Amino acid sequence: MASSEEDGANGGASEASDEREATRKRRRLGFLATAWLTFYNIAMTAGWLVLAIAMARFYMEKGTHRGLYKSIQKTLKFFQTFALLEVRIVPTSVLVTGVQVSSRIFMVWLITHSIKPIQNEESVVLFLVAWTVTEITRYSFYTFSLLDHLPYFIKWARYNFFIILYPVGVAGELLTIYAALPYVKKTGMFSIRLPNKYNVSFDYYYFLLITMASYIPLFPQLYFHMLRQRRKVLHGEVIVEKDD
Predict the structure, then answer these.
(1) Coil/strand/helix, residue 86
(2) C-beta of residue 84 within 8 angstroms of C-beta of residue 101
(3) Residue 204 burial (CB count, 10 A)
(4) Pick from 26, 105, 114, 197: CA 20 to 30 A from residue 7's CA?
(5) Cα–Cα distance, 51 to 130 (Å, whole number)
(6) How many Å apart are CA 133 and CA 131, to the nearest integer?
(7) Are 65 and 59 in contact (CB under 8 A)?
(8) Is the CB of residue 191 less than 8 Å from the CB of residue 218?
(9) Which residues are CB-contacts of 106 (< 8 A; sequence separation ≥ 6)?
């Protein structure tokens, strides 16, 4: 019986030790995750600030938007593509983040980068400005939140600027895609015609039309999600939402 009690005591001590070790590991992982998120958000804030400064400087020197995209495209492509990490690491709605990031990657690489004749469209400036101000505000908000020193102005900007910036950005994206349609139809770019050995066809022109139509159901979801978040954060309303 004494041996059994001793084994039980040793077993209990071992379990307690394992639990303490597991707690320490969780704390280390939590610290590392927070450190990485902080670095990520600081880097993204800095990147979009660099982009904003480059855009302002270009316009002040040239007095026109023509050539703007070409001058900032490398910075834009790098930081917007880097945002693919965000779908997994940023603590927000997977649907909201996924739709936003994927649509912007699409706009950068498959529209503006690939269809050079539209790079000087005024609509490109619309979504560039909307994206840039939105991202500076959003990443600043995440950074200060992680550091537990969130200025009220940053929080206010995060949940007020989008009211204008989201529609402006969407308008810029849609107008840019619309401007690309004649070129895509004429050249047949990215399209697959029959017959071919895979026996499949794909028409990029109609794909773009479907993409434009998809904004109709998706944009209100994202916009009203942000409005609900605004009421909750700024006005303390209790909002019950289904998990995405």
Answers:
(1) helix
(2) yes
(3) 20
(4) 26
(5) 12
(6) 6
(7) yes
(8) no
(9) 211
Please give the Cα distance from 153 to 141 (Å, whole number). Answer: 10
pLDDT at 175 over 70: yes
Max intra-chain CA distance, the chain: 91
For every residue of 163-205, DSSP letters joined together read HHHHHHHHHHHHHHHHHHHHHHHHH-TT-B-SS-TT---B-HH
Distance from chain centroid for Cα 201:
31
Cα(98)–Cα(200) distance, rounded to whole angstroms?
A: 28
Task: Given the residues 139, 173, 204, 205, select the one marked as catalytic.
Answer: 173
Q: Of 166, 183, 204, 237, which is the active-site residue?
A: 166
Res. 244 pLDDT band, cuts 50 70 90: very low
Helices (H), the chain: 2-62, 68-82, 86-89, 94-105, 122-146, 152-158, 162-187, 204-235
pLDDT digits over 106-144, tens only?
Answer: 999 999 999 999 999 999 999 999 999 999 999 999 999
173 given a catalytic annotation: yes
Query: What is the rounded CA–CA span in Å between residue 74 and residue 70?
Result: 8
- pTM equals 0.84
